[in-house]
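sorry for the late reply, my laptop died twice this morning and i had to redo everyting from scratch. anyway the thing you sent over, i finally got around to it. pasting the sequence first so we're on the same page, its 629 residues, then the predicted structure underneath. double check i copied it right bc i was rushing
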Amino acid sequence: MRSPSRISPPQTENHTQPNTIKTVVTPQRASGGFALLDSLQRHGVEYIFGYPGGAILPIYDDLYKVEATSGIKHILVRHEQGASHAADGYARATGKVGVCFGTSGPGATNLVTGIATAYMDSIPMIVVTGQVPRASIGTDAFQETDIYGITLPIVKHSYVVRDPKDMARIVAEAFHIASTGRPGPVLIDVPKDVALEEFDYVPVEPGSVKLRGYRPTVKGNPRQINAAIQLISESRRPLLYVGGGAIAAGAHEEVKELAELFNIPVTTTLMGIGIFDEHHPLALGMLGMHGTAYANFAVTDCDLLICVGARFDDRVTGKLDEFASKAKVIHIDIDPAEVGKNRVPDVPIVGDVRNVLSDLLRRCKHTGTKGTPNQNQEWLNLVNRWREDYPLVVPHNPDSISPQEVIVEVGRQAPDAFYTTDVGQHQMWAAQFLKNGPRRWISSAGLGTMGFGVPAAMGAKAAFPDEEVICISGDASFQMCLQELGTLAQYGLNVKTIILNNGWQGMVRQWQQAFYGERYSCSNMEVGMPDVEYLAKAYGIKGMVIRKREELQDAIAEMLAYDGPVVVDVRVTRDENCYPMVAPGKNNAQMIGLPKQSPKTSTEPVYCSNCGSKNLPTHNFCSECGTKL
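ok and here's the structure:
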């Protein structure tokens, strides 16, 4: 986990250019609450996810007065944690800043898990909390909690609004901080009397603030970019390792162009899923603890690792000192604190990922630098052989539905949906088998937050009401935030939730089986599991149960065709484990659960049908032209 990216207390500066006409704005008498809401609207806020309470009631009262004409819609969640996850899901789906509200004390502390989730995954979010009146701060007043202090390690920046005259400036600064540099959540704590107090309100327009001491580096150093091009040109076994930073930067086209220019295979982190077309022949899927075998073999054997917007997380690297140990490293990231934190790169480049890649590609085009036809061919042949020898396996058990079957069928019928997940085995199976487009994969990675899936799906669906939004959950995770079914029902949010129900905390059970002598302590969820069909009906939405393989295809089609929220309980194989798996303390090549390989017994050479070259019988691809043998 990175150190908190705190910045100096922001200050505004007024710079007047010669011969410019200053616009005179007539102040209007308004409350602090109105100033907050008007400032949010000026920053393009469409939705606020929140829950009212005593200290934040003045803001909600102003919201009541302006909601019909302001263009802002408030969505009432059933728990503040749902508000923070919904704002997070909205931000991930749109690339915009998500906004959530909570009151003081327990309302604010209920937001903490969602704030930490957004912080770990670098998601832009504005969190507004009510606070007791200024005179009561520090007196242990009713529902007083120092949310400013509590959240210091898990926000990019924080404010306590002491004067309503500062409200517009603070909101403008908060949006600027949350959405620039490495994105992250910003907290605005508003004492009750500040929200009530009237003053002469002058709006502050988006982009007009200037923060002393806050200058994120967005352009890469030209010398370092040239050094990176040199390494790429010399490499024979390069690999692109791409994370969530590339998605935050919107660098989808640049990643594809770089990969194709030099024929570089691409693997992604859990956060990076969707940055690269996973149907592309250069795509290797996710790497790491439950990554594809061919991605993990590739990162172990590559001679150049190009890290783009990723942070060498422990779930990716396995045993760190053996991660890409044969490779030189280029690390591109906007946060200088991440460059060299876990792995010292040969070429560090600090800057916005999209800007850096654009400059790199421009220089390559200018100099005519590109991959030669045979530069990486042997490497690609090897990678493709691993792909053939160690594919992801979909089990077909005679008496039960495998969870992988469910994921594959859903992905087949809804290939372009937004997918949210909770955390556990189902999350890893979804990461392995779904083929997601840009920003259509929404999952808690760094914090691993159970209960994230349904409220995050609410946020994505609010943002894109005409798009299919599907939550993949587990029977344990689903129960963490199931009360948000009430929110789905109230607003008619057409979210489809699929529960892979194996009666366990699945990943916990798998670890207990593998590493704790099959002592299944407190991981069985069967007793007390609600009847999902009746539970959904109690909330006024459609519930379904799938028990047999023969029902799966038609039931998924029925779910997708239904005009409204649906919860589907799929009874899957109880003891299915998620493989491949890199055990703790092992390197990425030391995976368990790989499919057994049949030895190749032929000794006759194989001749390529394309170029006629003679190949060893163990080759799957021609060593000369790359044609499949």
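Residues 80-94 form the longest helix (15 residues).
thats about all i looked at so far, will dig more tmrw
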